């Protein structure tokens, strides 16, 4: 099946400014200060001495995943090794990738990363752009809608305590904090009083993303971000005309392929209350996926760049790497950030939602009867 992921990039593009510093403590910083090889030979001498757990803590991916990423990027024309024609030797691919991974994995400043790897800030900026672009080129391969929908639905049904058949994904939006853009700053200023862009994503039971849309301004409600995404146009086809469905919260309009909870105005029936409980237990997987994404790639906790296009590429690159790492069967427990829910909580309250679809209402009513029967 052709790739169905869409990256929605906002049109407000501005100059990239300096990166802000963070009080994050760098792993092994004290030992590095005592190491005479720290600046000149960090890549050549220090990193090879890291045990796998040290490497994983510093770069937020395992050595095995790092090798896979380098292998995947090795064929990219932007990163291909060129014939040496004299002058300064070209930086090895592994070092370029390592530099960018450290950037995505932390809130360390560009100046700090450049010093650590013994490169100039301009060299860092050049290779960040090339590596991020190369990772984005992998998006159609690693962020794509599943073809075997039956197997996905079975795994969703087996997940957790309750049965809920024919689920193939869960959808939500997450706010990525950014520096105030020079153009259209009010559009990116959300209700929690910080600037952000929205990452809308659909994930499977294994936390991998199957569809992403990046770049809608933080002021937008989830329902509006969804309406402007390609998924809103093709979702029914992807879910085979309602044979399968994805789960969303009450911010989304109810459709035969997008199932949402009953809005609780204080008069829910017992069956409706139970249905909401069943749905919530399955839909939590997308919140866990966002917590893993932001916990692993801590740059997403605050992207101090004013170029919206660059920000969107960085976010989507993190989503691609997120999926690659999951394919490598990494232990993810140490990366999941429990504080992420607080960042996105209630950003959509008091916003109007689109009208529920008649076919969606009928399907949810039938699901309510069936789920109360099988889970009783």
UniProtKB/TrEMBL annotation:
Q: Report which residue ranges the record marks as coiled coil.
A: none
Q: Which UniProt keywords apply?
A: Hydrolase, Metal-binding, Nuclease, Nucleus
Q: Where in the cell is it found?
A: Nucleus
GO MF annotation terms:
hydrolase activity; metal ion binding; nuclease activity
User: Which Pfam family would be a valid example here?
Assistant: DDE_Tnp_4
Chief location category:
nucleus
One GO location term (cellular component): nucleus
Q: Does the record's keyword annotation contain Nucleus?
A: yes
Cofactor(s), by name: a divalent metal cation
Q: Which residues form the DDE Tnp4 domain?
A: 171-323
Q: Which family does it belong to?
A: Belongs to the HARBI1 family.
Protein name as annotated:
DDE Tnp4 domain-containing protein
